[in-house]
Amino acid sequence: MTSDARGHPENQTSLKRRAIQGSLWTLGGYGATQIFRLGGNLVLTRLLTPDAFGLMALVQTFLTGLQLFSDFGVLPNLVHSKRGEEPNFLNTAWTLQVIRGALLWLGACLLAVPIAQFYREPLLTQLLPITGLTAIISGFASTKLAIANRHLALKRLTILEIATTFLSLLIMAALAWIYRSVWALVAGNLIGTLLKTIASHWWFKGEPNRFCWDQSALKEIQQFGRWILVSSIIGFWALQSDRLILGQLLDVRFLGIYTIALNLSSLGEQVVEQVNSKVLFPSYAELIRERPEALYRNLRSARIILLLLSTVFTLGFVLGGTSLINLLYDERYREAGWILRILSIGLLGRVLSTTYGDILIARGMTFTTMTLTVTGTCIQFTMMLFGYFLGGYPGIIIGIAATEWITYIVYAFCFAKLSLWQPELDIFVIALAAGLSTALYFDIN
Q1: 438 burial type by CB count under 10 A (0-12 exposed, 13-18 middle, 19+ buried)
Q2: CB 51: neighbour CB atoms within 10 A?
Q3: Exposed, middle or buried: residue 139 (CB in 10 Å: 0-12, 13-18, 19+)?
């Protein structure tokens, strides 16, 4: 778009229309994939033991860690950068992505033995390298996925996500029924990743990727991604420290039960993250490039919708979490009920923070993002350990939930300085969380 076209009503309408259509596809796709995942989870929990889910949670935690420890924000940069559609820029980004995937797999191989020894689970020596092959496979995924996201052309992205999720779960269920082994989960992940990578090349429009090494593109990617890398490394500990600590202090059985509760409690947050990454981040980036004066208004409108959606999930899980677990799972997973109720209140606090977060990256404020991530990680470690010493594993769960609200306070100060804090919206969510916490305290006691 030329500078003369900036602010033109037709272009504003175009962005609004694309954002609405993208949101509908994102929410519809998210709903479909969650229905498939819930159905698959119900089948798999009847075929596999909690230990299998605990082992897979550890494997995914460390693979996620390796990914974040090498995250230069290549794909977000393709959405953010003015050069994001230049062939040399795209192909240099793709080349970096391929190299990164290979290095991630080597990292998984090197870590397998020490991790297996630390958690006293010998099977991890095989699970980590084989599941780590997903990093190599996804490294070859086409940059056409990022360009589709940049233009909010989310129809095909959503259909691809639904299809690969369904096929992965179908494969997992079939293999779990035959073998009753954690390897069913591994095979489903590998095949799903392979199908998505293949489809990214032939099902999306655009020029095919090729290996390229453009120094100017590399320099821009490095400058944009340097603080994202630090933020991602710290963010790993913030997002995964609960599973790392629970797996060591307790056992993989409890970790598997906790993972079931966490996945359910996170549904509201995942809605927000899906809309943030696929719709709002590219929308904010386009607004900042062309109409920055419209940013606050659009942020407020988006947050109203996202906070309402997450509140619905939270109410349902806090009030009916125990009954839901008893309905969906057998007696081996009963403990997930009270965990789900407590985590849901904490996740409501996280949503308050994450609905602000993508504004920073869209503005290129990656250092501020990193600072907030470091602060949140320190808070989480402190609250988890404090909770464990005071109340054992229930104390850890309460500490995890409390972390999100303390972190929100830090976010509020940060965004107030940027004149983006919106207390008139947040106060209603805070009051609701206080009321639910009080009701839950008296119910449990």
Answers
A1: exposed
A2: 16
A3: buried
- The answer to whether the CB of 364 falls within 8 A of the CB of 227 is no
Beta-carbon contacts of 209 under 8 Å, excluding residues fewer than 6 positions away, are 90, 91, 94, 142, 143, 201
User: Tokens at residue 22, please?
Assistant: 């993208």
Q: Which amino acid is at 437?
A: S
Q: Dihedral angle at the C-alpha atoms of 146, 150, 155, 156, nearest 10 degrees? A: -20
Structure confidence at residue 333 (pLDDT): 83
Per the CB < 8 A criterion, the answer to whether 260 and 329 are in contact is yes
Q: Structure tokens of 116? A: 């297996």
Please name the residues in contact with 192: beta carbons below 8 A apart, sequence gap of 6 or more. Answer: 164, 165, 167, 168, 171
Write down the pLDDT at residue 9. Answer: 41
Which DSSP letter does residue 209 get? P
Residue 316 CB: number of other CB atoms within 10 A? Answer: 15
Confidence class for position 191, pLDDT limits 50, 70, 90? very high
Of the candidates 236, 242, 123, 129, the one whose C-alpha atom is nearest the C-alpha of residue 182 is 123
DSSP string, 283-338: HHHHHHHH-GGGHHHHHHHHHHHHHHHHHHHHHHHHHHHHHHHHHHS-GGGTTHHH
User: pLDDT (tens digit, 9 = 90+) per residue, 85-118?
Assistant: 788 888 998 998 898 889 889 988 998 999 899 8
Question: In which residue are the tokens 């994001």 written?
Answer: 84
Give CA separation, 94 vs 140, 217, 268, 375, in Å: 7, 11, 32, 32
As a whole number of angstroms, the distance between CA 104 and CA 430 comes to: 40
Taking residues 39-68, what's their average pLDDT? 82
- Considering 279-288, 385-394, 411-420, the range whose residues carry the highest mean pLDDT is 411-420
Q: Indicate the domain borders of the chain.
A: 22-249, 250-445
Query: Buried b vs exposed e over 149-183: b needs ≥16 C-beta within 10 Å?
Result: bbebbbebbbebbbbbbbbbbbbbbebbeeeeebb
How far apart are the C-alpha atoms of 221 and 92, rounded to whole Å? 9
Q: Please state whether the predicted TM-score (pTM) of the whole model is above 0.85.
A: no
pLDDT for position 56: 86
Q: Count Cβ atoms below 10 Å from residue 239 Cβ, excluding itself.
A: 18
pLDDT at 2: 37
At residue 11, the pLDDT reads 44
Helix (H, G, I), strand (E, B) or coil at 51: helix
Question: Is pLDDT above 90 for 194?
Answer: yes
User: pLDDT, tens digit, for every residue of 323-345?
Assistant: 988 888 888 888 888 889 999 99
